[in-house]
Amino acid sequence: MPLMQKTLEIILSALREQGQPLDANALDRIIRARNRELRGPVRAVAKKKLLPFYQKVKESDPELWHGWDIDDALEALLVRTLRMKPMRTASGVATVTVLTKPWPCASACLYCPNDIRMPKSYLADEPACQRAERNWFDPYLQVALRLRTLADMGHTTDKVELIVLGGTWTDYPREYRFWFTRELFRALNEAADANAQRASIAERRAFYEHCGVLSERDDLAAFARNEQARVTRGELTYNQAIRELYGNDAGWQRASKSQTAALADVTLEHERNTQATHRSVGLVIETRPDCITPGALTEMRALGATKVQIGIQSLDQNILDANLRRISLDRIGRAFELARLFGFKIHAHFMANLYRATPESDVAGYRALVTDRRFLPDEVKMYPCALVDGTGLVEHWRNGTWKPYTERELIDVLVANMQATPPYVRVSRMIRDISSHDIMAGNKKVNLRQMVDCELARRGGGVEEIRTREIGTRGADLTELALVEFPYETTVSSERFLQWVTPEWKIAGFLRLSLPKASAIEAARAEAERERGVIGSTGCEAMPIEGKAISHQAARDIEPASASAQEERSARGAFSLAADEAMIREVHVYGAVAALGHASTGAQHTGLGRKLVARACEIAREAGYERINVISAVGTREYYATLGFEQHGLYQQKEL
User: Fold this and answer.
1) What confidence score (pLDDT) does residue 497 get?
2) How far is residue 511's CA from residue 612's CA, in Å, rounded to a whole number?
3) How many angstroms separate the CA atoms of 411 and 445, rounded?
4) Is the pLDDT of residue 297 over 50?
5) Global confidence as pTM
6) Cα–Cα distance measured from residue 74 to residue 65, given in angstroms and rounded to the nearest whole number
7) Alpha-carbon distance 144 to 415, whole Å?
8) What is the DSSP letter of 118?
């Protein structure tokens, strides 16, 4: 009997006997015993291989699979036993991160990496970047193969949050943005048919290989080596190198000609996704504050986006200026205001230890981020600056005008910031996935958040931040949950954070309700009309770099854009928000992902979300609003339709 088959049958027998998942020790004993039988120097059986083997048998050898006599309950126990990295879907959804291709950037910040194999600010050794590069930065391939990996690890992948990284979204041509989004949804829509998707993957790979576009790491390193060395020495800027390297590459140009689509093409995939087995429950787009305009947000909504990641980095104008972050605090504040009015969740990036920053200024700046009514993000990436070769910061390190914080200084800053974080904010992470060999100076410890948590526990006192309070995979006793409301004010709205909490203050689900001010809606409407009158704008302000304005126009040396003035107006759409309409910006229920249409042992699919929406409608009605919008993801439209919401332009809406 084959080795993997026998091991799996031993595990199935133990599961039938116990009637519950095997713990880590019991599973390890079985695997160790099987490997001892082989008496080889290498472990031939490994946990990570067992679930993919089971899934392959189920798919391609039905006779053997039926012989195991596995019902749904036993299969669920097996998956829970063999699942790798269970926290990957503990927040309620499966996240899939994809990257756009290398492209000129309209900014040149002092600390930002200049790896010309990647879009600006990313490094080729980061895990998501490696996956993107291996797959020619093709969105379909990135999504399809990541879903397969997650499934092989035992995760449910029918509710997916798509996260699009790559510097600044609006720096890319519009036709590329439409194509990239269409292919994300196409990959989700075709995931249910394994054979068809395998054929699509093979066809795409063959296309890129025929074009002559490289995907192997060694080949790509050689391809970029000369230009990268010149960038590192300061002889070329990132943008110049990108144009020289890719603008002159015939394979890259051949592939780029196919990377165009229209908004109508995206809409067709959206319609398919509302009934697909793998649905988008969120689409996240990364951009800069100066690129947040009514037109840009309207297009993002048309593409199905629900969250924006915005690089703030600091709220000290002197520090921003010193780091060549050419943006004002007023413009950052306006970006927050507009994103909130349009219903987006706002995920801010905040960086400690920038050039000319101090621990004291970092603590003060973060406190302003979470207390100043102009800002108040929903989510934060709070990470330290790491020195990477080829950045402008290197010279300041060498001459002693910048140095990394000591470990104690850094932890003290992060602890203070965690303690200042309000209960409606989620701190998603504290480090970038930068390999230690890429970091010349700065934090290299991958367990930085754990170190901060230990220090918080040592000092005592509670932390209100969401991620610390998530119920995760534990589930919740629904009879013990209480609905707690947390109100706060911004410059453009009254916000209500509704949360289901346990007696221990753990959070099982929440809703973000925004009650906009009439004056703020009218100001945004006027701004949108002014912007619509400026044809050819990308929604991103040009920045003076290299002695000229660098914006979308600067990229045309690589790939011309062809959108007409009429297409530009159409993509932007008309401002559709009204002063008498409230906005649900997010509904999220925690616990391990519950499959669509299946019962849950955690908090999902137990009516918590429905009750949150009902309470939000009640609050909005009592406040005098006539209607309520929800910034629904494409894959959640059906759910909100069951709650009485109807499609109304870019949102779903319900009369109050």
Assistant:
1) 98
2) 6
3) 12
4) yes
5) 0.85
6) 13
7) 38
8) S
